[in-house]
Amino acid sequence: MNYKLGIDVGGTNTDAVILDTADRVVAKCKRPTTADVSSGIREAVDAVLKAGGVDPGRIVHAMLGTTHATNAIVERKSLCRVGVIRLCMPAGLSVAPFFDWPEDIIPHLGGCYRMVKGGYEFNGKVISQPDEEEIRKALSTLSDEKIEALAVSCVFAPVNKEQEYMVKTLAEEVLGPGVPVSLSHEIGTIGILERENATILNAAIIKIADAAYGSFQNVLMKHDIQADLFITQNDGTIMSVEYAKKYPVFTIASGPTNSLRGAAFLSGISDAVVVDVGGTTTDVGILKSGFPRESTQAVQVGGVRTNFRMPDLIAIGLGGGSVVREGAGGVTIGPDSVGFRITEEAKVFGGNTLTATDVVVRSGLASIGDPRLVERVDGTLAETATQRIQRMVEEVIDKMKTQASDVSVVVVGGGSILLPDRLKGAGSVIRPDHYDVANAIGAAISQVSGSIDGVYDVAAKGREAVIEEVKEAALEEAVKAGASRDSVEIIDVEEIPLAYLPSNAVRFRVKAVGTLHE
Amino acid sequence: MRELTVDDIECLAIGAAVLGTGGGGDPYLGKLMAKQAILERGNVRLITTDELPDDKLVIPSAMMGAPAVLLEKLPNGGEPEKALQAIETYTGKKAFATISIEAGGINSTIPVYTAARLGLPLVDADGMGRAFPEIPMVTFSIGGVKASPMICCDEKGNMVILETVDNQWVETLSRTVTVAMGLSSMISCYVMDGKTVKKLAVKGTMSLAIEIGRRIVESNREKKSPIDAILSLTRGFRLFEGKVTDVQRDLTTGFVRGKALFSGIETYKGSSLILEFQNENLIALLDGEPAAMVPDLITALDRENGTPITTEHLKYGQRVVVIGMPCDPVWRTDEGIKQVGPRYFKYDMDYTPIEELAT
Q: Which of A315, A451, B75, B225 could be bridged to A511 by S-S, CB 3.0 to 4.6 A?
């Protein structure tokens, strides 16, 4: 029997699960997340291997969900000095790279850029031919500015990748192999500023991600696990660790995605509202055909505008550790929380802070810790607080759902014991088995994907032929990423006509997903 | 006269999207360009139409084409001033000021950029008071001003001068030129003297957009809804509150035609709204009956923070407030209705002002 290992590094806990080939849960465990991340992972892997009695040699795939890279950007820690080459001239000069970035991040990155001749029109025609000498000179002056990583952007690179590849080849020559190169067409979609921003962020975290994923590999090696390693990304699919080391920016929203995907898998429901209650916050998201509904707004990462598509979530300050208070204005819950100290500070665990967990235990809704320790908590207060918790979640569900009729609600996460089995607006409340480790399971069951995004002229070949061509290209991308060919299917085709011109230019975004090659 | 600061431009971009009635292009890029130009060249003087001498020349500045392309192929930055200066050379007259043709969307911020680069004042007015898809759909045109001579410039340095028999030909020919230029161009047209601007422009729209934007920013800071403030600034009406349940788009004509369906929440529970658009929002049908129609302004705002949502960003599940605002009286004249009324957009109905529909 072969197995899969799924790990989710959250703010409070590091969860690990082992699944068999039929995706049944063999073992699971939770350990506190540590500051260095890797020792928390080591403890969790240790524990889950013991709990399952699984031979480490039988683990063939290991999937890790971590927001290590996001934290580096948000906290402005360990970022590389990034040089930017933008192929655009004579277009593009009106707004320079790094313009409109938060000022406090610029000193960490250096803010060096060069704009050079190059770029394409929407239909792939060249704006101007790149000049090799000009690019060499730009690279060598960037090198003088001591850049540690290079980001390359090019006008309409999603339509034609050639010029970005040309800069990459020259960069390897001029800057040497020690300076990793991130290309915009591999990172983002149409909208050069957002795509370039994401590419710069990718370059900035490329070294810290390399170190983090390297230490993950070491942890597994020390446990004699020879599995192929994968890192989960924003869209609920995975990439190989080698790929992730080059494109760490794709992991920045993987946390909530994993919990939504895990909830879909565990409940067997593909269209539902998912409520993930953790120690400090509750995330409410929407599952559509088994995948998270994505936000339509430009997504900011650490104050930097990108065009990543992230799950559409509403987060509220409610979790198992939320502090409960009674004041002049009535009972309040959170938003502050005792967080990972819940096992010391909550009353049911012998502590002195009244938490959300304590009031639901007092109300008889849940049984955790020692219920006798909350017997002296005022029953009316506990009842009021319990109802307040329920209302907070019901309000968010109502905001998120898109139809007037009742919807299925799947509740997951360690803190979901706070919620009753009936909620207003919910046709049914499903609390699947293993709800407490839904994130790690979401990581473990991830599929692989390939996607294509570009602007096409539909006049020449006809719309249908173009769509077929784009679909085929997306399928190939998925296979390249490790999907087995017979499992790949197209899950999303988006057609965005370019407004204001009767020109037949249409932007297509197509995504294909498949299961991992055994 | 007042000075436009970088902070004003942030507000202008938000307010301009409210006046954009779902279209007009995202003002984001124009905002960045205007901010960069102001940081380099100093604040822009915004003058009222009263401060404009009758005999001085006003040359508008605008972007034409697909805003989505402009977000990928950013301008060189020299095009808008080149277009304006080419008009000066062609007519042999100097510009006293520049003006926006279209206060809704990206063409609110482009003239600020041009004004900053050339050190010209910007007139606090525009030619629509909202956004429309075609060059002749401006109040200047209704008043008999010729759109040509018109200049189109691209980032490569190409420049085309159009001299046409009427304004519809400007639309036809400039669109062909813009497609050839890579789907976007920077233009100047509708050259006027101060007296004509005073007579025909929709006045105060730049400062109105800034004020709308400021209320949205401030309300968000104070965690309040800005929607009542927007309604009082624009003499507008709350048409509906609800969630997007479906969005259908169709591209058979080259324009993005489509409709969005909303189901009501709170006081609108049980009701439904259909919003039909062609780039801009054209008509709002509340339970099947018109609640507002073009040329009056219809805009969907995020219910939480009042941020305007363009037609291309309308998506299933969004929670919105749909508002309607009366258009400039020029659009309600016979000629105005003929140019931009419901029948022009293929609706078999007569125009009824929003004030009448609301009562």
A: A451
Phi-psi group of A229: left, alpha or beta (phi > 0 → left; psi -120 to 50 → alpha; rest → beta): beta
Which of B36, B175, B316 comes nearest A99 by C-beta? B36
> Which of A90, A191, A403 lies closest to B245 in CB terms?
A403
**Min Cα–Cα distance to chain A from B310, Å:** 11
Q: Do A500 and B77 touch (CB under 8 A)?
A: no
Indicate the CATH number of A79-206 among 3.40.50, 2.60.40, 3.30.1330, 3.30.70.
3.40.50
| Ranges for all domains in chain A classified under CATH 3.40.50 | 79-206
Residues of chain A with CATH 3.30.420: 269-432
Residue A324 has pLDDT above 90, yes or no: yes
Radius of gyration of chain A (CA): 25
Contact criterion met (CB < 8 Å) for B175 and A501: yes
Tokens of B114: 């041009």
pLDDT in tens, B342-354: 999 999 999 999 9
Q: Is the pTM of this model over 0.80?
A: yes
**pLDDT of B191:** 98
In this structure, chain B runs to a length of 359
pLDDT category, B123, cuts 50, 70, 90? very high
Given a cut of 70, is residue B355 above it in pLDDT? Answer: yes
Judge: B256–A504 Cβ closer than 8 Å, yes or no.
no
A348: DSSP letter: G
Lowest-pLDDT range, A150-154, A206-210, B119-123?
Answer: A206-210
Please state the rounded mean pLDDT for residues A176-195: 92
Q: Provide, as residue numbers in chain B, all residues whose Cβ is less than 8 Å from the Cβ of A503.
A: 66, 179, 183, 254
Structure tokens at A439: 């994130």
Residue located via tokens 């480490």:
A56
Task: Give the DSSP letter of residue B107.
Answer: G
Substitution target from A121, A501, A507, A508 for chain B, most B beta carbons within 10 A: A501
- Residue-level pLDDT at A150: 98
Dump strand ranges (E) for A278-338.
282-288, 291-292, 299-301, 304-306, 314-316, 322-327, 330-337
Nearest alpha carbon to residue B43 among B140, B119, B142, B107: B119
With an 8 Å Cβ cutoff, are B71 and A192 in contact?
yes
pLDDT at residue B88, rounded to an integer: 98
- What percentage of chain A exceeds 70 in pLDDT? 97
Q: Tell me how far apart the alpha carbons of residues B159 and A346 are, in angstroms, rounded to a whole number.
A: 72
Q: Which of B29, B74, B183 sits opposite A498 (nearest CB)?
A: B183
- Tell me what pLDDT residue B29 has: 92
pLDDT for residue A501 is more than 60: no
* pLDDT band per the 50, 70, 90 thresholds, residue A500: low
Which residues does chain B have within 8 Å of residue A499's beta carbon, measured at their own beta carbons?
23, 25, 66-68, 255-256, 279, 312
> Do residues A499 and A507 lie in contact, with contact meaning Cβ atoms separated by under 8 Å?
no
Instruction: Spell out the domains of chain B, with CATH numbers in brackets.
Output: 2-203 (3.40.1610.10), 236-358 (2.40.390.10)
Alpha-carbon span A121 to A495, nearest angstrom: 19
Alpha-carbon torsion angle A313, A316, A321, A326, nearest 10? -170
Q: Which of B6, B41, B74, B303 is most worth mutating to test chain A (most A CB atoms within 10 A of its CB)?
A: B74
CATH node for A269-432: 3.30.420
**Running DSSP on this structure, what letter comes out for residue A346?**
B
Residue in chain B lying closest to A89 (CA): B76
For residues A235 and A446, give the distance between their C-alpha atoms in angstroms, rounded to a whole number: 10
Class of residue B83 by CB neighbours under 10 A (exposed 0-12, middle 13-18, buried 19+): buried
The answer, yes or no, to whether residue A11 has pLDDT greater than 80, is no
CA angle B28, B33, B38 (to 5 degrees): 125
Burial class (CB in 10 A: 0-12, 13-18, 19+), A92: buried
